[in-house]
Design brief:
By secondary structure, this protein is an alpha+beta fold.
Amino acid sequence: MRWLKKKIRSHDHLTPDEVFLDAHEIPGFSRERFEGLIEKPIGKGAFFSFSALLMLFGVFLLGRTFWLQVVRGDELTTRSEHNYIETTYIDPPRGVIYDRAGAIIATNEAYTDDKGEIRYRRSMRHPYAFSHLVGYTGIPSQAEKDAGHDAIGVSAIGKAGLESRYDTKLRGTAGRRDQELDASGSTVSRGLIVQPHEGENIKTTINAPLQEAIWEILDRTMRERGFRGGGGIVFSVKDGSVASLVSVPSYDANAFARGLTKDEAAEIFSSKQAPLFNRVLSGTYAPGSIIKPFVAMAALEEGVIDEHKSIYSSGVLELPNPFDPSKPSRFLDWKAHGYVDLRRAIAVSSDVYFYTVGGGFGDVKGLGIARIKLWLEKFGFGKTTGIDLDGERVGFLPDPESKKTLHPENPIWRIGDTYHASIGQGDVLVTPLEAARALSAIATGGMLTELHIAENAAKPPEQFEKLSFEAQHLKAIREGMRSAVADGGTAAAVSWVQTPIAGKTGTAEVGSRKDRVHSWFIGYAPADDPQIGIVLFLESGPRANLVGAPFATSEVFRWIMDHGGVEGILR
């Protein structure tokens, strides 16, 4: 009973009314606010345990922060910036390029890249025949981006030819897909897809089979006969539409689209023949005798001679040397022609005749270099033609001022310089395109036809520049060119063609070299109702070679006659 007494004794300070009062108040306590409960103080151990837990958590946070921000800070920053939102561009197909009949010249080949995305690369029907005309595509360089040629999301832009000139139309607009990635690179969500828009198609005035035939003829002739290169253009003299534009040697344009191998790159970029160079568009060459019809027209229009004036060629023109009569200055003809008038001089290409009408001799005063240059400029030499291809260059017409710069060791202009300019030698340079435009003026009676390749780039003929000739002068020049394509003329290689052709050949020395020459042919057909103009050129071949541009022209007309004739290639 001792424990019971002790227990009673421990509560002897409570009074009955306190006990009954608490019991009475219990039902009124708000238990949600913990009223009526006996509070017990928290022990010191709990405080120590909680503090230790907080310290451990703080140390962990500090360590993790140090690890993420200091140790892996740069890595995670880069990862966050580049991988959090990823934009994928959807390549658009480039526009298709067609020939005048609707045949495909250049289209697209689909492939899948290493990310599984569908991409497109160009595919050309004959990558060698069309390489300089159509050009190629490639990834924009930094210089091109700086120049504003970058197309966002498009895998390639036009680099040359029609691909370059009409790039903004052909390349289309890239599609776009955004996706959110987590830290591990997994896709969290995808944004809406913006669909790509394919590029515009372009229809050209090119006759694709003719293009391929001329390429094959020029390429074979170049290789078999030792020429360095060449080129050709066939066009409508009436509206300027280009049916063919070829430059050789050429290159595999499809190889650029799929990516050049090391061997392919070495072959293209290291070749001394410069296969990337478009000789028709950018090449400047001594024209030789193809300049003579234009000099003859200048002489007629300026009254220097009339069409019946005969000049004797013994095979050489000699000028007295006032300092040493025993050593006259001698200017050679390619053969002794005897007496020739204007028509015959054009047909047989007499140098002595054109020395005389150009620089003067005997009773013929001559044009002089100022009037020669003036009339050649009227025919469009020394100016761009405006053809719808990038990179066109212009030729060069010398005069006394330019000689001072070009030849400071011998700056004085002499009559011999005028003689050389009169036959397309010396410092005279022209492009095949300039020759084509000048030819159109004779073929059409004075209209300087503007050349174009894309069908929608055509201008109305009434907007073409027009030269004015006396009808009889034009008739004499045309008859001289018709006689050149006949037995005894310099272009007799083409005389077999049933359709009458008017033309002029040219052989020009390559700079100071005597053993290498350029070979030219310019002409139009039919001679009595001109429809097409043709300019063929072979660069730097052996002088002894008897096969050149006239032979190639004959082969081109052989193909034309077998494929619908002159009218057929322009349909």
